[in-house]
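In response to reviewer comment 3 from the previous cycle, which asked for concrete evidence that the modeling workflow produces usable outputs, we include below a single protein chain processed end to end. The sequence was submitted unchanged, and the resulting structure tokens are shown without manual editing.
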Amino acid sequence: SNYKDNYKEIAAIIAEPTDLNYIELGYRSTGVIQIITSGDSGHGARPEEIKVHSIYKMFEIIKKINALEKKLKITAHDSVLGQPTITLTGIQSVDTAYNQIPSTCRTIWDVRVTPKIEKKLLPIFKKTLGKEVEIELIKSPKGSLLNTSCIPRNHTDTFSNSLDASITILGLRL
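The workflow returned the following structure tokens.
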């Protein structure tokens, strides 16, 4: 049975921020990466005893990741999905005392990928950052739509046909 038969009126609210200027039929898949740097722990009053500072080490890693993102925006650009992005979404040191130099620093990265790098994400990070850091793929990117397209509204026939097809798929053909 068709759902429309159960209702006198059917309406839809589309919460897509495109002003319906185009129908977007694709998205970049999400990967989540955790990076941990390690160093010496010590008291804040004696910083001279610290040979490797985990937070300062992470600053250098962040610079490398920013450079990687700039490179990937060119080399992994997709004509439909756009550019991959690498966004720092969390940073934390493990030790909790305000006067303690932490032995580790952890960052979390939201990585939006294109099909060109979807299956290569972890190897790309490992090659870029080297073996001095711990890298973990917390969420593997899956499902960037490969054969996608954006249909501009000024392509009236294509836009209307796509909108009709979407309505039909939803079972709302009136």
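Confidence is low (pLDDT under 50) at residues 146-153, 155-160, 165-174. We consider this sufficient to address the reviewer's concern, and the full set will be provided in the supplementary archive.
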